[in-house]
TrEMBL record:
Segments crossing the lipid bilayer: none
The protein's name: ABC transporter
Species, as recorded: Pseudofrankia asymbiotica
GO cellular component: plasma membrane
Localisation: Cell membrane
Membrane association type: Peripheral membrane protein
Domain of life: Bacteria
Gene3D superfamilies to which the protein is assigned, alphabetical: P-loop containing nucleotide triphosphate hydrolases (3.40.50.300)
Amino acid sequence: MLAVEVVDLVKTYGRARAVDGLSFEVPAGKVTALLGPNGAGKTTTVEICEGFRRADAGTARVLGADPRDPRLRPRVGVMLQSGGMYPGAKADEMLRLVAAHHAHPLDPDALLARVGLVGAPARTPFRRLSGGQKQLLSLAMAVVGRPELVFLDEPTAGLDVRARHDTWDLVEQLRSAGVTVVLTTHAMDEAEKLADQVVIINRGRVVAAGAPIELKGGGADGELRFRAPGRLDLGQLLTALPVGSRAVERAGGHYIVSGTVDAAFVAAVMAWCANNGVPATDVRVEQRSLEDVFVDLTGSELTP
């Protein structure tokens, strides 16, 4: 069963196509992470699925209905940023107001305690909360109504380590309760830990989708990483390695050489460095990461 189905979605702003024929599916009861560089179209896509924007072409179905169908409101939770909040309202007042619009909400006081907004923060006007506290309140407001589907926009942005891990625990509890979660995030470790499915969007299109382990396994068997002076002749290095190997230089003289990384592969790379007077340091063998997949597909780092 699908909680969200997006087919050939298009959204333009003037001459720019923010979303360009984008299609993906979100299975019910799972956590799906949407990843993409800034300007990739993921925020516009999510806003269409939330019913806040109208697509120019294509379709989006949420819980089997048009996203703008008012009957979806009690079934869908949306994590808002600063928009939609009453600046002078206290945190506990805001949460109780949202809870009052649902038939069987979670207990607001228990939920405030669950996200760490107890005592003074609960009685603090929204405008005076810290950035992290605003995030936690927005998260609580998204889930207080016991939604079947919840959209979380950068749920751990601005949080300290403890609050971040508590938020992860809450997302995992939502999944265990059968709630579908769609989250956008700039944190690769967050996507790897939480997501059953990752959808990578670039220039308004889906460039990859699947479980994190599937995406990571779709390329090299492993990677040899090392640091060395910048601008090495990687073409020359590849002539010393098996056909199909790849080499890239990241910022700061950080090199990643991928392929079937066995003992002979490592020896060949180190021999090339020695023969060419390259002082390689911090040498290590790793499995391909989700961040590596992202960079390969989009050509950019995922930065907030």
